[in-house]
Amino acid sequence: MCRGLIGKKLGMTVTFSSEGKCVPVTVLKVGPCVVTQIKTNETDGYNALQVAFGEKKQTRINKPVKGQLKKGGVESCEYIREFSVENPEEYKLGQVLNVEMFNVGDLVHVTGIIKGRGFAGVIKRHGFAGGRKTHGSHSHRIPGSIGASAWPSRVFKGKKLPGHYGCTKQTMRNLEIIDIRENDNLILLKGAVPGPKSGLISVLKPNILNKLA
Predict the structure, then answer these.
(1) Are 14 and 86 found together in one domain?
(2) Is the same domain home to 130 and 179?
(3) How many structural domains are present in the chain?
(4) What CATH code is carried by the domain that includes residue 40?
(5) Does the CA dihedral 40-46-47-50 come out positive or negative?
(6) What is the DSSP letter of 182?
(7) Claim to verify: residue 142 and residue 193 sit in the same structural domain
(8) pTM
(9) How far is Cα 3 from Cα 209, in angstroms, rounded to an integer?
(10) Which of 32, 105, 157, 186 has the fewest other C-beta atoms within 10 Å?
């Protein structure tokens, strides 16, 4: 069984449980995804499905990718991803995968690219407390001393300093599926997921990440 699908984050809203509690949810449009390549241990060394999602102008797709998509009967797509699968012989090229593989109450992992925030200081980027504001202090938002003077006379690798903040891959684990709208390929997850609106996300069943860890 395929362990995941790709989709887009539509935004956040609230819903109410059967007990009348207000639950914050993130709405994801997951699939439909089309199988464009089937990888097996015999041919590629591992079992996986390559799936395509979304639409894109054909003029923006190069010829090698177009030829690859034709095998699955797809003219154009916006994203291509691979997902591990136990029995690839159960699938065929051109097969459509959608939210039917998930159930309400399942726990899933969602991977996305967090929002980019440009160049940021240590207070915003790493949560530093900052220096004191009184008694003539000039160290309000600076990182402070960053290295030893005598030995080793250098800054250690990994020191928390100002720099580019965001635009990194992040995974939120064990998010509960509150509701599934199969007609619209929508999944409502409890809580927040990384990324902006219309951002690409991958929804995985938990055991796939345990195998990769």
Answers:
(1) yes
(2) no
(3) 2
(4) 2.40.30.10
(5) negative
(6) G
(7) no
(8) 0.77
(9) 10
(10) 157
Give the whole-angstrom CA distance, residue 5 versus residue 57.
Answer: 22
Q: Residue 213, Cβ neighbours under 10 Å: how many?
A: 5
Q: List the domain range (segments joined by +) for residue 28.
A: 4-116+169-212
Q: Between the CA of residue 90 and those of 93, 98, 207, what are the distances in Å?
A: 11, 16, 19
Beta carbons of 126 and 141 less than 8 angstroms apart: no
DSSP sequence for 70-111 = HTTT-S--SEEEEEE-S-GGG--TT-EE-GGG--TT-EEEEE
Burial class (CB in 10 A: 0-12, 13-18, 19+), 57: exposed
105 within 8 A of 178, measured Cβ to Cβ? no
SS (H, E, C) 88-99: HHHCCCCCEECH
Mean of pLDDT values over 187-195: 92
Do 185 and 201 belong together in one domain? yes
Residue 116 tokens, joined? 């980019």
pLDDT tens per residue across span 95-123: 888 888 888 888 999 999 999 999 999 99
Indicate if 88 and 52 belong to the same structural domain.
Answer: yes
Q: Which residues of 195-206 are buried (b: 16+ CB within 10 A; e: fewer)?
A: beeebbbbbbbe
Compute the chain's Rg from CA coordinates: 23
Are 63 and 130 in a shared domain? no
Q: Return the biggest CA–CA distance within the chain.
A: 72
Could you tell me if 193 and 111 lie in one domain? Answer: yes
Give the tens place of pLDDT for each residue, 69-85.
877 777 778 788 888 88
> Of 184 and 3, which is predicted with more confidence?
184
